[in-house]
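Step 1: inspect the first sequence and its tokens.
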Amino acid sequence: MYEVTKSQFTNPQLVLGGPVQTDIVTFASGAKFALGELVIMSTGKMAADAGLDPTKVYGIVASEVDASLADAEGIVYTSGVFNKDEIVFPEGKTYADYKEALRNKGIILK
């Protein structure tokens, strides 16, 4: 079972306000996921967002996850107010590319 700690929900640099909602998910093996990284759902597991379609974002990684060798459980934020400067956007993408799509999901970037 995955243990959730209060600090994972109160990162003062990333989380600006709430209410914040989270989800415990499985991250697909083969990568490390950074705090603040945008992820998508792919075949039932979290995967890095390649920046192809901002509407596909599932959430924001709430705590670093190492799934480099095997699938791993972790937490993603699925709604709340977040610091846009702490979000890890896909290469070549910016806040402007994601602002509207994320807002429609309840993820507000400021």
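Step 2: inspect the second sequence and its tokens, then contrast the two.
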Amino acid sequence: MDSTMPTFTSSQQAARRGFTLVELLVATSILTLVIILVSSLTHNATLTITSNTGHLDADAQAREFLNRLGRDLKSMIIRPDIDYTTFKNAIDPATNVSKQAGTHGANDWFAF
């Protein structure tokens, strides 16, 4: 045998086979920390995905509403007796006289 290697008796070899209690506690605590970090990351990712899904649903509903509004406005029956642009009916504060449509009045009214 090599003289640099220590020699152990069978009782010493049996004592060195397993892990000590301190080694097991350190390994368990490290594993616990890793599990806590992974679960925290998973929880935060789930919250982010849930929040973004809500925003996407709201955007989709708004898009559907605006598309429907656009279709309704395009299919609206246009009456020839109504001017659909704007109606101007403002009172000139200096003369207290009502301005007629087509002038530069302050109030705009839409006819629907």
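Step 3: confirm your contrast with the notes below.
DSSP finds two helices and four strands in the chain. Residues 101-112 have pLDDT under 50 and may be disordered.
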